[in-house]
Design brief:
The protein is built from 15 helices and 7 strands. With 274 residues, it is of the alpha+beta class. The strands form 2 sheets. A 5-stranded antiparallel β-sheet has the order 1-5-4-3-2. The chain has a two-stranded antiparallel sheet with strand order 6-7. The structure holds a DNA duplex (13 and 12 nucleotides).
DNA sequence: ACTCAGGTATCCT
DNA sequence: AGGATACCTGAG
């Protein structure tokens, strides 16, 4: 099916934004696995009009409307969020947002996101991808040739410590195993967590073994779509130190500080590279 | 060989 | 409370 989108939308920037680890580049687009859904997506007539995107997906219109529309967060107008940035008052963020235009915060499954970001600690992005992929092949459900869903809590529980080690989890294996146990028997209840306000949700997430401030914020932003949460990693910390010595003006951008974080992170990593 | 990676738990003071 | 340190492992 084909759909038209008239808003910021850039597949490559989303893929490189560090929020998703199950996108693989194809000849002319990406292949995405999310939950039990699998799709190939490409943009037709790329680069003609700025905010007019014709996307071709290998799914039915029905599946697009019931799943992928929400996944890509098409209900939020990112260009209007971006226009809140005043180039005079915040030139650094403005530059970042111009360069990062097209990034969107995906709606990903909170379970999958939790495990992925537990794995992410002290790993670079290729290494995260590799571990997650091994985990899916080992314990996920086969969707198609060579494509596996992310394993559910019970599926992950069934793996031995040795098998987890084979996925290159290292010292994170015990965190992943505990999370799988807790989710499988309901001690982690994602529906309940989803009903909590931001501050209570963060508090609950940080109680989990292997989840500190950074992973909790990533889970808030990418797993629970709390768009105001602002993960502070080594890149962002260095950036804040250099560019915002008086502190970042969070009050200006509520409730979308997380989107601003994504522009900053992407700009710093891919444009400035320092 | 060596450092570093989208950090966190644990052990100090 | 806040600071130092160990930690698995793949990539550059």
């Amino acid at each position: 099916m084909v759909t038209e989108i008239s808003d910021d939308f850039d597949l490559k920037k989303i893929a490189d934004s560090g929020q998703c680890f199950r996108w693989t580049e194809t000849e002319d687009g990406y292949e995405i696995i999310a939950g039990s859904h699998w799709v190939r997506i490409r943009e037709q007539d790329r680069g003609k009009e700025v905010n007019r995107h014709r996307l071709e997906l290998t799914c039915s219109r029905e599946e697009f409307e019931t799943f992928w529309r929400q996944y890509f967060d098409l209900g939020l107008d990112y260009s209007s969020v971006r226009r809140r940035i005043d180039p005079e008052k915040d030139p650094y963020l403005y530059r970042a947002s111009v360069c990062g235009r097209g990034i969107r915060i995906l709606n990903q499954d909170p379970w999958e996101t939790l495990i992925t970001f537990i794995i992410s600690q002290r790993k670079n992005i290729p290494a995260i991808r590799l571990s997650v992929d091994k985990l899916c092949r080992m314990a996920g459900t086969r969707l198609a040739e060579g494509r596996y869903s992310f394993p559910g809590p019970e599926q992950l529980c069934s793996l031995s410590g040795e098998q987890l080690a084979e996925c290159g989890l290292g010292y994170r294996a015990k965190y992943v195993h505990r999370a799988a146990e807790d989710a499988a028997d309901g001690r982690i209840d994602f529906d309940r967590l989803n009903g909590l306000p931001d501050d209570a949700l963060k508090e609950e997430l940080m109680k989990l073994y292997g989840v500190g401030i950074k992973v909790a914020n990533c889970e808030m932003l990418f797993g629970f779509h709390r768009l105001d949460s602002f993960p502070e990693d080594v890149w962002i910390l260095r950036l804040l130190e250099e560019e915002y010595p008086g502190g970042f003006p969070f009050a200006e951008y509520q409730p979308y500080n997380g989107i601003m974080q994504q522009y900053l992170f992407w700009y710093r990593r891919t444009v400035q590279k320092k």
